Amino acid sequence: MQKRTLGETGWEISVIGFGAIKLPLLSQKECEVLLNRAIDGGINFVDTADCYGDSEEKIGLALKGRRKEFYLSTKVDERDGIGVRNKLERSLRRLRTGWIDLVLFHDVRGSEYDRIFDTGGLETLEEARTEGKILEIGISIHQSLPIMRGAIESGAFSTLMVAYSAFDEDRLAAELLPMAHTMGLGLIAMKPLAGGRLTGTPSLPTHKRPIQRESLAQLSLHYVLSNPNITCAIPGMTKLHELEENLQVGRELRELTIEEIRSLMEYVGKAGKGFCRNCGYCLPCPEGIPIPDIFRIEGYWSRYNLKGWAREQYGSLAVKADACSGCEQCLEGCPYAVAIPEKLRTAHETLR
Ligand code: SF4
Ligand code: SF4
User: Fold this and answer.
1) CATH: 3.30.110.30, 3.40.50.1360, 3.20.20.100, 3.30.300.30. Which one for 3-268?
2) Distance from Cα 28 to the centre of ligand 2, integer Å
3) What is the position in ligand 2's atom list of the atom closest to the CA of 275?
4) Could you tell me whether strands 100-105 and 159-163 are parallel, antiparallel, or unpaired per DSSP bridges?
5) How many CB atoms within 10 Å of residue 10?
6) Contact between 205 and 263 (Cβ < 8 Å)
7) 24 lines ligand 2 (CB under 6 A)
8) Residue 350 Cα to ligand 1 middle (Å)
9) Whole-model pTM above 0.85?
């Protein structure tokens, strides 16, 4: 398994990490088999979050006794000092560990970013770091490029986690990832398979040749990791054959050929029709609807089965999908042909 250095932490972490968002879908026994095989196969970075159902508990049980063999990362949804402290202590208990290597502020959006600084969240994690309960502080941001820029420039975080896959827009790759890397941040690519959309076997004949050797998921991981600024990709996994495929990528990491990249981009272009990539080009909506946020939250519901959390997140939005007037202004801005008003109606029915 190849390793890269996680920014200025100096940690040598495996290029493939274990994304544990889907563990709530598995039994404890299945988690034990999968996680232990991951560690045996060379993965030394396991990422979870306090809101991923019972993922933390399952990791804590499955990997007890092996704690020193991997870097453990979790995320807190809270932004204020008391909330962060409570969630951190709960994570330590659930993960059955005396320390967590990396704790990130999870999915930071809008004014939440300032609250990390103003209401004690960051201070609390810094205290926890002094106490030895955590080693590093990071931040995960799904969409907002300005917030990413602010987080990089703040100097407060050693690690930035971003949604990054073959679907993702060029600005992220061209501008912010090199900037983060230059400033010494480690970069973790979450959703490197676009929430499962870059898996399976494409049916288009032009894609068969490159994909004969490796699966679409493997090509997609090679693509993500061909960006030298990315330290590690953390695909979610539930099956042993998925894990083995991912391990193979980590062992045999390589540059994609031009033909493979062309095929992947062609496939992404076709598969991407109707799929929201959280690029934000549809904004601003005259009604103030946070369109990409709503589609992302809906994805947590439909793809990851995090229903309670998705409803909670949706409930906290100041403007919801039912404010849509149907003006269709957003459709002009969306480069990926997402049927926004229609999908907003469906999302609202699901999440309200
Ligand atoms: S159609 Fe709805 S979501 Fe799109 S811009 Fe108009 S009000 Fe906003
Ligand atoms: S709806 Fe379209 S423009 Fe808006 S964030 Fe999604 S992909 Fe981008």
Assistant:
1) 3.20.20.100
2) 37
3) 7
4) unpaired
5) 9
6) no
7) no
8) 18
9) no
Kindly give the distance from the C-alpha atom of residue 285 to the centroid of ligand 1, in angstroms, as a whole number: 5
- Classify residue 305 by burial, with Cβ atoms within 10 Å: 0-12, 13-18, 19+: middle
Ligand 2 centroid–CA 142 distance in Å is: 13
Residue 309 to residue 330: CA distance in whole angstroms: 27
Are the C-beta atoms of 306 and 52 separated by less than 8 Å? yes
Tell me if 221 CB under 6 Å of ligand 2.
Answer: no
Tokens for 196, please give them: 């499962």
Distance CA 78, CA 124 (A): 11
Tens digits of per-residue pLDDT, 83-139?
Answer: 999 999 999 999 999 999 999 999 998 889 999 999 999 999 999 999 999 999 999
- In this prediction, residue 342 carries a pLDDT of 95
Contact 227, 177 (CB under 8 A): yes
For tokens 């799929």, what's the residue?
A: 275
CA distance 247 to 241: 10
CB of 329 closer than 6 angstroms to any ligand 1 atom: yes
> How would you class 115 by CB atoms within 10 Å of its CB: exposed for 0-12, middle for 13-18, buried for 19 or more?
middle
Q: What is the pLDDT of residues 286-318, one digit of tens each?
A: 999 999 999 989 888 887 678 898 999 999 999
> How many residues belong to the chain?
352
Indicate whether residue 324 lines ligand 1 (CB < 6 A): yes
C-alpha 169 to ligand 2 mean position (Å): 11
What residue's CA is closest to ligand 2, atom 2? Answer: 334
- Name which residue sits closest to atom 4 of ligand 1, judged by CA: 330
Alpha helices in 199-280 (DSSP H): 208-213, 216-225, 240-251, 258-271
The domain limits of the chain are: 3-268, 291-351
134-141 and 100-105 beta bridge pairing: parallel
Angle, alpha carbons 130-115-108 (nearest 5°): 90
140 phi/psi in degrees, rounded to 5: -110, 135
Query: Please, are residues 264 and 166 in contact by the beta-carbon 8 Å criterion?
Result: yes
Both tokens of residue 6?
Answer: 């996680």
